[in-house]
Amino acid sequence: MSKTKFITLGTAGGPTPKPYRMPPAHAIAYEGGTILVDCGEGAFQQLRRAGFDLKQVRELFITHHHFDHIGSLFACLGLNMMMHRHQPMNIYGPPGTSKILDHLIAACDIPQATGFSVPGQTLPHPRDFINSRDIQPGEILYIDDIRISCCENTHYRPEDQFGKQGPISLSYRFDAPDRSMVFTGDTGPCLALEEFAKNADLLVGELFDTELVINRLRATNPDMSDHALLQMRQHFDEHHLTPEDLGQLASRAGVKKVVAVHIPFITKSAEEDAKYVSRILAKFSGSVTISEDLAAY
Fold this sequence. Notes:
The protein is α/β, with parallel strands linked by helices. The chain has a single domain (5-296), classed as Metallo-beta-lactamase, Chain A. Helices cover 30% and strands 23% of the residues. Helix 7 runs antiparallel to helix 8 (226-239) and helix 9 packs across helix 10. The protein is globular, with a radius of gyration of 19 Å. It starts with a strand and ends with a strand.
């Protein structure tokens, strides 16, 4: 039994609220501590529900800056102020991460704007305990005995644009002494990610269904133009993974197990899960699970 666990704190996909799933956030739990991966709305509530001591979360890795993945960054600052945090919290992410945090930290200076204290009370300021660092694809970090590496993926742009100016979306690999785990983050099909994930024990990957989401957009936004819907469809097709894409990624990488997250469903049923598992298994012969919030692998 592996001691290092991947906990899916929030398994929803996209910015709109889902009735049965929280926005993207996950945790790596190991004997030495807890690493938070992405920070969607409610991430710290989910950490608490999963039984973690929030003060023991020392590292946060961000895949990219879409709102559904960073919605609790300001809460991260405020909650740690109120818990009188003094030990450092290190936040890593693609270029732009430090700038975002600089602005959020500055917001904590606005009198009466944050409501974190009562008259006469002094709380630690986030600039005293938050360390932020922008990282680039290919960088390697070590947190205790876990080796953490990253690669660019195709959530923002195709692979022939890698290395050029523009926003970057990262996938992460966590190599612990007892197992290796890859988190795709949001991405489209990506040859670099296939190589990056080679022979991992666990692949936690996004799952998307373009037709399901387009039909929902039509129903909930009847005034949306055909052109706008076409643009959304193009983004979904190129910059997210269908079940078949996820299965093909897993097969080519030679991973042992796939856990699907970033799920767009607004319903909850075993039949629906089974349908998507079957589509992944059409391309992959290993173990497949459609995750739920607060599951551990």
